[in-house]
Amino acid sequence: MAGRLFDTRGPAYVLVPGILLGIVALYLLSAAAGFGLFVTSAFVYGLSFGAVQPYMLAWTVQRAKPERRGAANSTFLIGMDGGIAIGSALLGLWIKNGEYAAMFRGSAGILVLLLILYGVTLIYASRSKVSRSG
């Protein structure tokens, strides 16, 4: 479903709902006191990651020149693995001085910042198109 949305409507129709699902999932996880909410959070996070990660990879490869697509794929995956490694270490330091719930809410906050950054980028790109065509 996310792939069809990406192909027919564009990246924002996949990225924005995917990020919103990630925010909801992390907030639910921060509030989980029992197995039911924990599993619900995992399900929602799976929907988020399952939409956003393949979309980001496809978008990266699509934007690369045909002869550079292998390098684009490799760069994306190295960046993702590096982000997971660095993020795990930094969030581990956060846990050392706090609690898991606060760390998950903070992670949701990072996704909120990502959503704001993407929104600003979309606004800038649409204004840039208008000024070039006018």
Give structural notes.
The chain is an all-alpha fold and 134 residues long. The protein contains 5 helices and no strands. The mean pLDDT is 89.
Task: Describe the structure in brief.
With 134 residues, the chain is mostly helical. The chain has 5 helices and no strands.
Radius of gyration over all CA atoms, rounded: 17 Å
Determine the N-to-C terminus distance.
36 Å
Q: Mind summarizing the main beta sheet?
A: none
Low-confidence runs of at least 5 consecutive residues: none
Q: How would you classify the quaternary structure? A: single chain
Query: What percent of residues are in strands?
Result: under 5%
Going by helix content, strand content and strand pairing, the class is: mainly alpha
| Gross geometry | globular
Mean pLDDT: 89
Helix and strand run: HHHHH
Count of discrete alpha- or pi-helical segments spanning 4 or more residues: 5
**Proportion of residues in helical segments:** over 70%
Q: Tally of extended strands?
A: 0
Features:
single chain, mainly alpha, 89% helix
Give the topology, please.
Elements: H1 2-9, H2 12-31, H3 35-63, H4 69-96, H5 100-133
Helix pairs in contact: 2-3, 2-5, 3-4
